[in-house]
Write a structure and sequence with these properties.
The chain is an alpha/beta fold and about 350 residues long. Among the domains are: about 160-295, 3-Layer(aba) Sandwich (Rossmann fold), CATH 3.40.50.720; about 305-340, no CATH class. Helix content is about 25%, strand content about 10%. It has helices spanning about 20-30, 95-100, 110-120, 150, 170-180, 195-200, 210-215, 235-240, 255-265, 305-320, and strands spanning about 50-55, 60-65, 160-165, 185-190, 205, 215-220, 245-250, 270-275, 295. The strands form two sheets. The protein has a seven-stranded parallel sheet with strand order 5-4-3-6-7-8-9, sandwiched between helices. The chain has a two-stranded antiparallel ribbon with strand order 1-2. Strand 7 (about 245-250), helix 9 (about 255-265) and strand 8 form a beta-alpha-beta unit. It is elongated. The N and C termini lie far apart (about 85 Å).
């Protein structure tokens, strides 16, 4: 059957005496085979039946097929340049379209899709290693965490426990409001605060010694002043119950930090802090590897929305001052106490 000028064969005329199925079978038998589209492994090129010469690289072994020397640099019968198939090189789009490369649907080739995901059939790609957790001491990500009662050894229930707050300023009052939802017994000590103000936040005012002796968990929220720098030392920690927890939230200067580390190292206390004597905390500081001491970077309040609201508060008070009125939003600097504050400014916001 002669081909048409476009390279396609005409369909044979249908014999009316044959059923449709027989006519279809005859048409399939009459159709010539596909011109070397699936014969790459038989020494054929993507171009229509162009013979190729197998090449061998001594360093890489059997590689690829290239068109014969007579065909190199010349266009094929269908106008497509000779295709040099090399390992790991995808054919150009014109070969994929005109040469009729078979399209492989990912659902029909799950193993191929899996190999591609692992990077096994693409040069230069390998399976990505599983990322390691930056904290080696974290037991649960490493698959060693205990569940249930075994995992709660040493844990304490806040409801019904005795919690002390050292310093009932703005920060201490905020902590008291949060803790009230757990219904604990709240104790507080602040020599600069009236007892009635302390009671208004659901806390029982008492002296420092009683606060240390009764608190199972102690929140330190006192600001640093000229009278209290380092006043929580080894003697104060020894008065706390064994197994109590100290949570440092204000400034590290109110405690003797080496003495606190020693109390934790001995097992008398557990501690948590996001403030340190030197900030940023040096990478080789011994507190980083101290069991029983929970650390967090000093970043409380360092949010864009918080800084924006601070600016809005300042602008509101400036507006009041312009009209001859006292400021109402920002915390006032009282003449009797402002000269006694010794808080070290933070270097990073």
């Amino acid at each position: 059957m002669p081909p048409t000028p476009g390279g396609l064969h005409e369909r044979p005329p249908r014999d009316p005496r044959l059923p449709a199925a027989a006519h279809l079978a005859a048409a399939l038998r009459a159709r010539p085979p596909a011109p070397a589209l699936r014969s790459l492994r038989r020494g054929r090129d993507h171009r229509r039946g162009a013979p190729v010469a197998p090449r061998r690289d001594p360093a890489r072994g059997p590689l690829h097929h290239r068109p014969a020397a007579a065909d190199r640099g010349s266009a094929g019968a269908n106008g497509v340049a000779p295709l040099h198939l090399q390992r790991g090189v995808q054919p150009p789009p014109q070969h994929a379209l005109r040469g009729g490369l078979p399209a492989r649907h990912p659902r029909r080739h799950p193993q191929r899709r899996l190999r591609r995901a692992r990077g096994r059939d693409r040069p230069g790609l390998r399976a990505c290693p599983r990322p390691q957790h930056p904290r080696r001491g974290r037991r649960f990500p490493a698959g060693r965490g205990e569940m249930g009662r075994r995992g709660n050894q040493g844990a304490r229930l806040l409801t019904g426990s005795t919690i002390g707050i050292l310093g009932m300023g703005t920060l201490g009052q905020a902590v008291a409001r949060v803790l009230q939802g757990f219904r604990p017994r709240l104790l507080a000590h602040d020599p600069w605060q009236a007892p009635s103000v302390t009671r208004s936040f659901g806390a029982e005012p008492m002296d420092l010694d009683a606060l240390l002796a009764q608190s199972e968990t102690l929140f330190v929220t006192a600001a640093v002043t000229s009278e209290n720098q380092g006043f929580l030392g080894a003697a104060a920690f020894s008065r706390m119950p064994r197994g109590a927890s100290l949570i440092l939230l204000s400034r590290a200067a109110v405690v003797d930090f080496p003495a606190l580390m020693e109390a934790v190292r001995s097992g008398h206390l557990t501690a948590a802090s996001d403030v340190f004597p030197e900030e940023p905390l040096p990478a080789d500081h011994p507190v980083r590897s101290l069991p029983g001491f929970l650390l967090s970077a000093h970043r409380a309040g360092a949010l864009d929305i918080a800084f924006k609201r601070m600016g809005e508060m300042v602008m509101e008070d400036l507006s009041l001052l312009d009209r001859g009125l006292p400021p109402q939003v920002c915390k006032r600097a009282e003449r009797e106490t402002v000269a006694r504050f010794r808080s070290k400014p933070v270097a990073v916001n």
